[in-house]
DNA sequence: CTAGTCACTTGCATAATGATAGTTACCAGG
DNA sequence: CCTGGTAACTATCATTATGCAAGTGACTAG
């Protein structure tokens, strides 16, 4: 009963992590995005044990992120290629790459995105497709969507969305009951 | 000797996953971005066992993603707030949310980003800050950065970057030795 | 017919996870 | 003062995932 499942949570982040949140999974997707397809390519690139690789590849195939394709029948040989869903995961990898470069590469970046023609390094930002406005500022907030259940709605009401709608950002967050209680004594 | 470390890999994605790649970690960050700060808030929101939460919070503090702050001395009470580094992680969460909504929410989105004033739902895309061009197309490719070692360089040469520079995208990838070998027989 | 490659599988030791049950430190009510 | 409650943990222990080493099956090259 280990490894509790995130699958039944309503949160899309949890649902995503359910499929790609395990150790190695995202690195396999990263390598697949870099063009690797074969078992031993992954094995060598990652330094992963073959049994682990088998399990992770199987899970990713089941999740619909990779597709297992037989490219040779007589010596049975398979390759693993990204599906539409897998290719769609690229923004996450790019965001993680950018974060890693900013915070965990004191010697400077060793891997980055560049424009194929000009060679100029890219500086990734998340924006809204329509307006082009950056999504990471306070302008955009999380909100319950059309399919949100009661629980999701309540949870989000207590967070940024609720704060923005209630108007008073400080009061509802920093001054919860327990803190006031604790303050009485001090 | 379990759980091999990604820390010494040069890849920024691996370095990131080393800090936030464990089960629960990203969901904790998600909740922190939603405004949660206290132990029992995380506990209730996630349905995580308290010992797990202790370990994950400790790891995230050590990684510099969260900061443990004592807000009351006499009844000892702590809160966990995101550091600059933690807030910087938001694009990854947004990207994952977007991916989850597109692929694992058949009933429709239950959580999404909206513009605080207009209420319009956002459609997240990764672009270059300077040029505004989308980073997920073939225009941008991964390349070794200034701090790349020999191994990193060799690995990337075999991938998208190498293909773009060699010019022939098909020939160098799909026609590796083993495939040609396999074809001889068929 | 020996050596080698590719794609795995099996077995076993170890380490991480999860559920449950304490523990410590305080406050509030009767 | 005794009971009950909250906040933030720690301890114990069963279960499960991970990692290493080694082996297997189906070929192919020499």
Protein described:
- Two copies of one chain form a homodimer.
- Chain A has 186 residues and is of the alpha+beta class.
- The first copy, chain A, is 47% helix and 15% strand.
- Chain A has ten helices and five strands.
- The first copy, chain A, has a two-stranded antiparallel sheet.
- Chain A is globular.
- The C terminus of chain A is likely disordered.
- The structure holds a DNA duplex (30 and 30 nucleotides).
**How many runs of DSSP E, i.e. beta strands of chain A?**
5
Mean pLDDT of chain A: 83
CA-atom Rg of chain A in angstroms: 22 Å
Shape of chain A: globular
What is the terminal-to-terminal distance of chain A? Answer: 44 Å
Determine the oligomeric state from the structure.
homodimer
> Which structural class is indicated by helix and strand composition of chain A?
alpha+beta
Q: Show unreliable segments of chain A.
A: 165-186
Largest sheet of chain A: 2 strands, antiparallel
Helix percent band of chain A: 40-55%
Sheet-strand content of chain A, in percent, reads 15-25%
